[in-house]
Write a structure and sequence with these properties.
The complex is a heterodimer of chains A (360) and B (511). In chain A, the strands form four sheets. Chain A has a seven-stranded antiparallel sheet, with helices on one face. The N and C termini of chain A lie far apart (43 Å). Chain A has helices at 27-35, 70-83, 115-120, 126-140, 162-169, 215-223, 234-248, 253-260, 265-269, 273-285, 332-338; strands at 10-19, 25-26, 46-51, 61-67, 84-91, 105-113, 144-148, 153-158, 175-176, 178-186, 199-201, 204-210, 295-301, 304-309, 318-322, 325-329, 344-346, 354-357. Chain A has 360 residues and is of the alpha+beta class. In chain A, helix 1 (27-35) crosses helix 11 (332-338). Chain A has a single domain, classed as Glutamine Phosphoribosylpyrophosphate, subunit 1, domain 1. Chain B has 511 residues and is an alpha/beta fold. Chain B has two domains: 10-72, Alpha-Beta Plaits (2-Layer Sandwich); 171-506, Aldolase class I (TIM Barrel, Alpha-Beta Barrel), CATH 3.20.20. In chain B, 29% of the residues lie in helices and 16% in strands. Chain B has an eight-stranded parallel sheet. In chain B, strand 20 (385-389), helix 11 (395-404) and strand 21 (408-411) form a beta-alpha-beta unit. The mean pLDDT of chain B is 95. The chains are: A alpha+beta (360), B alpha/beta (511). At the A-B interface, helix 6, helix 8 and helix 10 of A face strand 9 of B.
């Protein structure tokens, strides 16, 4: 598999569904949502992420991994053994789907960090240790790629239409309280499964439709905080920006969104003095985190789901609600397909996040 | 009288059929090129005195004058070029150090001209700045790495959080361009006034240079950066406190490593009051600050100035771009500088020794790239903004500078050209026929401060519009998304080493 994938811009479809009471949603629901938007992808990438899918191992870090071959698997496993206790490992079950070819080896590992490792890096949080492992494997281990690395969640993705990817990964066998999905329309030939969406890191996963004009600025900003951007894709950068702002800087979701898609200076000038100072400070300090250019994205995380557009809404995003369910979709049809009569359906404004959170 | 081997540099070609003997040229030339011969009733010209400033040709009412290169060159060859021969003749006649003015004009690479910009096509829409917002506002100063908030518990509020982090003082610019340091003394009062007025209208800043601040210009304090240089001319509490920011000048791109010299003849009553030195005495800036012999001394001066102004203003430290700029800049940031100003080898001056101007320093593009990269590597880029100076000629240079990593640029030569400067490089003579680099009241009057203000405002407006067009083309609607975005630049005709130093890919290579 070709590790360094050239930058792939393109259009896409995104979809997500959350049960705010943490009730389970069958995999086929998200498959229907993303499949109805078939036209928005071109068969060169599709994927799903689900939260709550591994209740039996919910406290273990679950790594989904792609390997080129048995050798890279053994090598990576040696490294994992060194830093983690492997609670369980298995090949991720798949079906035979004719159109899905050139598959990597696809495995999942349930891991706990060794006591020695924790002692060695006493200044780091568990999340930091896991993130460092992910960065190390993705950058340094030839033929190995960490697809997701959260707890009680996982990313399933590859090259193909989303419906074929779903069939391949047996998504219909899983149930989750939160699903996100992606259908991809890249504008050149994809070489590699790792480049498909969602992008996962720790408990975050992201699907994204867009191409950000600020990638170079965002990338260099992230590198200053120890992130290594291997894939040269915007979506990876956006995921890391969320991780930086929400986890490392501990910003509230609304504030993080104001940093990623800030209000215009004209709008800020019209606010009261206290709010003006706050918003000015966000733009001054987090200017390099601004996601500029067309994008609509869905971020899934342990406690909810967030939809966000760029600050002048150059790509579509629709949100909907029905009882305990919160939906996000590139197009309204994605929501209507499984929920013909939602209580509420709306188009979030440019830069204004649509957030659904678990209410327990 | 000793024989001079020098030929004229320029010749005045007068079309006698057009000349009406009005003597405009006679009155306009402070170098005494043109004289009226009463007996002959005819204006004649002395080519030897001509500096090629084009004042006479521009103002001649009948376009009777053409100033061209003098056709008779020295017997030059590839090694012994005419400028080399001329300088030897000059020095063998005078025995002195050669002086010149403005920026280095030698054939070193201009990297701005070897960088190309990106634009969006299909997969990413370009943005039309006439229809969509396009933001150039820039803040300069030390910024915290992150912000902290507390929940406000007020559901009425648009933003339900309170900002806990206190920010350092910042300069707010409506467009990322400022007027660079030019002292009162090197340029006339009217030009200082025009720069101040323009800065105020534009929502940007001008820089006093090291000559102090004329008492009548204190009212522009909110748009003024005051300089503290090695001579400490005109530095006092009111001067520091009236300004928006204070710049410690360590070095200047046109003359890295050396000080400055304003001859006593130029120290008029007004200049003497402003600089706080006796009338008619030479104003000499030492090469180093004599209280800064190392980085820890710089830190002391930075904090002395912060104390003197109660931590209300950002402190800029300006250095010339030299080989080791990156680690010097890192030291400056750690010493407490809020803004770093880098002045490249093309940077202008009112007076500098020719050999220094033309041979010391490095191109600003390379210095900028290395400083920005170093500060990022060390994780301290947020602690200081980077402002660059030295040969910024147009809006494309500005865009490329910001993409390389600058927060804003300083311009000076471009601003003077807007006011009428024709780049004759004779500022050091004090005889500027355009009324810019002179203290002669007769010449100074030639700058109408209001017209000069309007021309400066026009220039910056025009550049800002062009910057917005280029940003829109790249699909960017806020300048901060261009900052350090080297992926939107491509190098053309550069070696691998140059590409590496600039941190850009060659033209033709995709992301």
């Amino acid at each position: 598999m070709n590790r360094i994938e050239p930058h792939i811009p393109g259009g896409c479809s995104v979809a997500g569904i959350l049960n705010e009471k943490k009730g389970f949603i069958k995999g086929e629901q998200i498959i229907k949502m993303i499949t109805v938007m078939h036209e928005r992808s071109n068969g060169l990438g599709g994927g799903f992420a689900g939260w709550g899918i591994y209740p039996d191992n919910k406290d273990d870090w679950c790594f989904h991994l792609f390997f080129d071959n048995e050798k890279s698997r053994e090598f990576t496993e040696e490294y994992l053994k060194h830093d983690y206790e492997i609670m369980k490992k298995e090949e991720i079950p798949t079906r035979k789907v004719k159109v899905i070819d050139k598959r990597p080896l696809i495995w999942r590992y349930f891991l706990r960090i060794n006591r020695e490792k924790k002692n060695e890096f006493y200044e780091l949080t568990e999340e930091d240790i896991v993130m460092n492992s992910v960065m190390k494997i993705n950058e340094e281990f030839e033929g190995a790629f960490v697809v997701s690395s959260g707890k009680n969640m996982g990313v399933f993705k590859g090259v193909g239409y989303p419906e074929d990817i779903a069939e391949f990964y047996r998504i219909d066998d899983y149930q989750a309280y939160l699903w996100i999905a992606h259908g991809r329309f890249p504008t050149n030939t994809p070489g590699w499964w790792g480049g498909a969406h969602p992008f996962g890191l720790l408990n975050w996963a992201l699907v994204h439709n867009g191409e950000i004009s600020s990638y170079g600025t965002n990338k260099r900003y992230l590198e200053g905080f120890g992130y290594r951007l291997m894939l040269q894709t915007d979506s990876e950068a956006i995921l890391y920006l969320f991780d930086l702002l929400l986890r490392k800087h501990n910003l509230p979701f609304e504030i993080a969104c104001m940093a990623l898609a800030p209000l215009l200076w004209d709008e800020i000038e019209r606010m009261n003095e206290e709010e003006k100072q706050l918003l000015k400070a966000i733009r001054m300090v987090y200017g390099s985190a601004l996601i500029n250019g067309p994008s609509s994205l869905i971020l899934g995380y342990k406690n909810g789901m967030l939809g966000l557009n760029d600050r002048i809404k150059l790509r579509p995003l629709i949100a909907g609600r029905k009882d305990d369910l919160f939906y996000l979709s590139s197009e309204e049809c994605g929501i209507r397909e499984i929920c013909p009569e939602p209580d509420k359906i709306w188009a979030p404004k440019a830069g204004e996040p649509a957030i659904g959170e678990l209410k327990l | 009288m000793k024989l001079s081997f020098l030929y004229p540099e320029f010749q005045v070609i007068r079309d006698e059929s057009k000349c009406i003997q009005c003597e405009v040229c006679v009155r306009q030339c402070a170098f005494g090129v043109h004289t009226y011969d009463k007996d002959e009733k005819k204006v004649t010209s002395d080519n030897l005195k001509c500096v090629g400033c084009h004042r006479c040709a521009t103002l001649c009412p009948t376009q009777a004058l053409i100033i061209s290169r003098y056709p008779q060159d020295f017997r030059e060859n590839y090694n012994w070029r005419k400028d080399v021969i001329r300088d030897i003749f000059k020095q063998s006649e005078s025995g002195g150090v050669l002086l010149t003015s403005m920026g280095c004009d030698k054939e070193y690479p201009i990297y701005w001209d070897k960088l190309l910009l990106d634009a969006s096509q299909v997969t990413n829409p370009s943005i039309d700045p006439l229809r969509e917002p396009m933001e150039l506002r820039t803040y300069l100063g030390n910024k915290p790495e992150k912000l902290e908030f507390s929940v406000k518990n007020n559901s009425q509020a648009t933003v339900n959080y309170k900002l806990l982090t206190k920010l350092s003082p910042q300069l707010e610019l409506e467009t990322p361009i400022m007027f660079s340091a030019m002292s009162y003394g090197s340029i006339s009062y009217n030009v200082c006034l025009a720069l101040a007025q323009a800065a105020k209208i534009l929502g940007i800043y001008y820089n006093t240079g090291e000559g102090g601040l004329h008492k009548d210009l204190y009212k522009f304090g909110k748009n003024t950066i005051v300089q503290v240089a090695s001579g400490r001319f005109g530095v006092h509490s009111d001067y520091l406190n009236v300004a928006a920011a204070i710049e410690i000048k360590i070095g200047q791109g046109a003359k890295p490593g050396i000080g400055g010299h304003l001859p006593g003849e130029k120290v008029s009553k007004e200049i003497s009051e402003t600089r706080m030195i006796p009338e008619g005495t030479d104003a000499i800036s030492p090469a180093p600050h004599h209280d800064i012999y190392s980085i820890e001394d710089l830190s002391q001066l930075i904090f002395a100035l912060k104390e003197a102004t109660c931590y209300t203003k950002p402190i800029i430290v300006k250095i010339a771009a030299v080989h080791n700029s990156a680690s010097i800049a890192s030291g400056m940031v750690r010493a407490g500088a809020d803004i770093i100003a880098l002045d490249g080898v093309r940077g202008g001056t009112g007076a500098a020794p020719t050999r220094i101007r033309d041979n010391v320093g490095i191109p600003i593009e390379l210095a900028l790239a290395s400083v920005d990269e170093r500060l990022r590597k060390e994780g301290i880029r947020h602690r200081a903004s980077i402002v660059i100076a030295g040969g910024i000629r147009n809006s494309a240079d500005v865009v490329k500078a910001i993409a390389l990593g600058a927060d804003a640029v300083y311009i000076a030569t471009s601003a003077l050209i807007a006011c009428g400067c024709h780049l004759c490089q004779k500022c050091y003579t004090g005889k500027c026929n355009w009324g810019i680099a002179t203290q002669d009241p007769y010449l100074m009057k030639r700058i109408n401060p209001d017209i000069a203000t309007e021309r400066l405002v026009n220039l910056i407006h025009a550049w800002s519009l062009e910057i917005k067009e280029m940003l829109g083309g790249m699909g960017i609607n806020a300048i901060e998304s261009l900052r350090g975005n080297r992926l939107r630049l491509r190098g053309i005709g550069l070696t691998d080493t140059e590409l590496k130093l600039l941190g850009v890919k060659p033209a033709g290579e995709s992301l």
